[in-house]
Amino acid sequence: MKINIQFVQMPTSETMEEYVQEKLDKLYKKYDWIIKSDVFFKKENDPTGKGKICNIELSLPGPKIHATSNEKNFEMAVKETLSDLEVQLKKRKQEMKPYI
Question: pLDDT digit string (tens) for 4-18?
Answer without folding.
Answer: 999 998 899 899 999
